[in-house]
Amino acid sequence: MSNFNTELYQALAKGESIDELICREKEEAVNYLLQHELTICLDYEKYDPIGYNSGNSRNGSYQRKIKTRYGEITAIIPRDRNGEFKQQTLPNYQRQTDDLETTILQLYSKGITTAEIADLIEKMYGHSYLPQTISNITKAAEEYVEEFHKRKLNKRYVVIYCDATYLNVRRDSVSKEALHVMIGITENGYKEIVSSRIYPQESSENYREMLKDIKERGCQEVLLFVSDKLKGLSEVCLEEYPRAKYQSCWVHVMRNVGRLVRANDRKEILSQLKPIYQAQDKKRANELLEGFYDRVESNYPKVVKSIKENSYLFSYLEFPKEIQRSLYTTNIVEGAHKQLKRNTNRKEQFPNESALERFVCNQMINYNHRFSNRIHKGFELVQSELIELFEKNYSNEKQSSEDSVL
Fold it and tell me: What angle do CA 161, 165, 171 make, to 5 degrees?
């Protein structure tokens, strides 16, 4: 899709009407969503060999004219050969859209206040909306956030990553508050944000509350938790999911070591740690770790002490080799934080927690949508091994539950 911001600035600079530009972008977006819906229905991309002899396929399209606030668009609605595809992007038989209300909802979901939206609507359309009127319209956005937080989850997650990032929010004054995020990968390899909560500070007890919530929403079996070494978090994870394992993020281990050594020695010492977490098995990893202790303990006893105190360094090595690189750091959730920060940097602060919640929820829904059909690297190769791990870890629990019923 085109760079809308660039085209908008160019149109404004030339004194051109933006209605035609918006209409064109809306038409492109609608048709993109329709094609994406069909791909989800068929479960394979266009021209993908997986679709051969699958029992259903693409079968042309038909057009519908839709009137919008900015002009008429042509929706190209695809068909499938079996007639199973029922598109949801456009309401059936509707020939015009409630563009103003839709625009308000989109702005509201991105954290814009009702007063700001009212001012913007007046500038765009030449007539005013009272903030209270906009508030009534935006109740749908609040329900959208609530639905996201209450949605049902998968029963099984191979791994759940826990991490927090800080965002500016105003209560009586502006301060940074901790957005706690959990990202899970299902047994089929699909990645999603399973939970997020905003708290004044990061703490393990906040994560306990989140873990209890995801259990109530259907997440019953987890094989591994990965996080930085937040005090008490490993205990909380293993208390809530006693059959899971816990892994300390090696990136945070390295950062802690770097903090404890002189700048001149930092590069050399950190380079000695890399072969340790890249070892092929626990035996070799422990051998390399002991060698590391022998080399650095005389000069940096605190480094050795800090690592020895961590009993969760090599849990990831109990999993198939094909996915181990995805399990020894929290890079996945930190990557999501970076993307979120890039988007939040457009606003210096959020006027209240609700505005921040709406914005974050919108970003997370987009994240989950983006990865809903992508199997994370390596997971497609080890699905049978992962199923065996779930059965091994949780079969006794199932038997105990059945016995208690009897």
Answer: 135
Nearest Cα neighbor of 256 from 206, 194, 303 is: 303
Range of the structural domain that residue 285 is part of: 155-386
Please give the sequence-ordered ranges of beta strands (E in DSSP) within 16-109, or none if there are none. Answer: 58-68, 71-80
Pair 71, 19: CB distance under 8 Å: yes
CA–CA separation, 27 and 30 (whole Å): 5
For 295-312, what is each residue's pLDDT tens digit? 999 999 999 999 999 999
- Backbone torsions φ then ψ of 91, nearest 5 degrees: -60, 140
pTM above 0.85, yes or no: no
Annotate 283-312 with three-state secondary structure.
HHHHHHHHHHHHHHCCCCHHHHHHHHCCCC
Q: What are the tokens at 305?
A: 């002490």
Q: How many domains does the chain have?
A: 3
Domain assignment present for 398:
no
pLDDT tens digits for range 23-49: 777 788 778 778 878 887 787 777 777
Distances (CA, A) of 23 to 2, 7, 30, 70, 75: 13, 13, 11, 5, 12
Q: Do strands 221-227 and 156-170 pair parallel, antiparallel, or not at all (unpaired)?
A: parallel
